[in-house]
Design goal:
The chain is built from two helices and eleven strands; from the N terminus they run E-H-E-E-E-E-E-E-E-E-H-E-E. By secondary structure, the protein is mainly beta.
């Protein structure tokens, strides 16, 4: 089964780009400079920030359905990120780490979930999307629980 992976739009974060650290703090955000060996996964372009790039650590509501599963968590957004990742049957490398995939129905209720790593992530995506009641899947980093990306049928 074909699947489509999309990153977040940069637009909701653009007002934070270029703000001073004090101004960011008023928005509950923090700027970090990426150093060699850091793992700051950008949720817009779905890639790791490169050494020397700034990322913003922000709190983001990724599951807005008015259900018990409504959820928000900390995420990284590369400062000045532009085009959202959007690809069919292509899993960005950053989604091949240990991932928790959470399948939701059209009402925003979780109907299934599991973890996978490496090449097994694609198989889990296909298994979850094969269930007719699944409307979308949220990918989360299993260790820290941060939202990573949205996955739907292509």
């Amino acid at each position: 089964m074909s699947f489509r992976v999309t990153g977040l739009s940069a637009q909701p974060f653009a007002h934070l780009f270029g703000l001073s650290d004090d101004e960011l703090a008023r928005h509950g955000a923090v700027r970090l400079m990426t150093a060699e060996g850091d793992r700051h996964p950008d949720r817009v372009e779905l890639r790791l920030a490169r050494p020397g790039e700034a990322v913003l650590l922000v709190n983001h509501e990724h599951q807005s359905a008015d259900t018990p599963y409504r959820s928000r968590h900390a995420i990284f957004v590369r400062e000045h990120a532009e085009a959202s990742f959007d690809a069919v049957d292509q899993l960005p490398p950053m989604l091949r780490s240990l991932m928790s995939l959470r399948a939701f129905d059209a009402d925003g209720m979780m109907v299934d979930a599991d973890i996978a790593e490496g090449d097994a992530v694609e198989g889990l995506i296909e298994r979850l999307l094969a269930q007719p009641e699944v409307a979308y899947v949220h990918a989360h980093y299993a260790r820290r629980g941060c939202y990573a990306a949205l996955i739907r049928r292509a």
